[in-house]
Amino acid sequence: MNLSVYFNEFRANIRLAYPVILGMLGHTITGIVDNIMVGKLGAAQLAAASLGNSMVFVAISVGIGFSTAITPIVAQADAEKDIQKVRSYFHHGLLLCVVLGIMLFGIVWVAKPLMHLMGQPEEVVVLAAPYVDWVAFSLLPMVIFQAYKQFADGLSLTKYAMYAVIISNIINIVVNYLLIYGVWIFPEMGIIGAALGTVASRIFLVIYMHYILSSNEKLKVYFSNFSFKDIKRSILKKISDLGIPSSMQMLFEVALFTCAVWLSGSLGKTEQAANQIALSLASMTFMFAMGLSVAAMIRVGNQKGLKDFKRLKIVARSIFLLAILLEIVFAILFIAFHKYLPHLFLNMKDVTQLADNTEVIAVAANLLIVAAIFQISDGIQVVVLGALRGLQDVKIPTIITFFAYWVVGFPISLYLGVYTELKATGIWIGLLAGLTVAAIFLYLRFNYLTGRFIEEEGKP
Predict the structure, then answer these.
(1) Cα–Cα distance between 440 and 454 in angstroms, integer?
(2) What is the pLDDT averaged over residues 176-182?
(3) Shortest CA distance to 63 belongs to which of 174, 161, 172, 145?
(4) Measuring CA to CA, how many Å separate 446 from each of 230, 249, 312, 402, 442?
(5) pTM of the model
(6) Phi-psi region of 81 (alpha: psi -120 to 50; beta: other; left: phi over 0)
């Protein structure tokens, strides 16, 4: 097929994806800003924030993964012009996300003692423990926000979450600045100040999304007359059947990256800080692919509702192609600037930290070379996963992601990182292997399913 068929879809893809990309970049920038501001306090504080965020990020991945179930079913119902279905999916999804947010907060809070069992430096664990308390609490508003966001995304209204995240970032930066360093009348709280900035910004996200969506005349019908009497077990089950496997898919990947943080920590605070720098930068470029993944969920969900599977395949492949082109550009930038980017995160003017920071930069520069390559695989696997969620196919992809990350990726990371001289670089080679296997098998699954749907569509 002529490539122009796919290029013609780029504008529609970008129009849907760019607000999601900016919103997700905002979430990532929140973490990067925290890392940059905390990094000025020293390598131990940066390592502590990295360790604390790694625990909370595992829980966030579960919440975000689960909430993605709302988008494709809302998109399909919207294409069918069934207002009552859309309203019901939103109410049920919001309720499930509130319950999940409370559960995740409780789990992370109870799991804090695990930090002592991970072989992390004691200095780092002591600093991380109180940080985790506050950032874990921010899980509740974060997961509730996701319910609003995924609902709006399903209606192709992707800009609202973008605005919410941009403003919340400003709140986070201001609160960070005031509380980390003790500016004006505010106390100097170090990394706890960064945690409080995260809490404040995430509470704002929920307030803003509820206000802006419920105030919209066209959307008011979805916010009226909520009652627990209208909650149906069958719809809770439908969302859960999509949401639980989706959350597991994201959990398997994030847990792999979290183990990379822990493995790096077991090698020392220098390796862990370098890992966090490389991971922060790779996460930022990954958000472009995540935005396109949401566009794939929405557009594939719409085409599924219209039962136009030939067009569905063209739309999805156009998003895959766009993601590959973007990630190649980022890979080139990473390779070109791998020696310079780590300097953004550390204070090289602090003589007392100079030796540690110089070593951190050397390790991080090597990791960025591997990150340049693996983000292409990462981009492919996440957009294909989005298309499969749009098809509401989640069970087989869950098995694929588990196999790729934990049967292939983790053993390679463990062996190369701990038992060879590659150390942190070896850990990242394992990540590359897992992501590449996931990308290949997820695409094969998508190709098989769409081929079957098109064949069935052509039957009389």
Answers:
(1) 21
(2) 91
(3) 145
(4) 35, 16, 11, 17, 6
(5) 0.85
(6) left
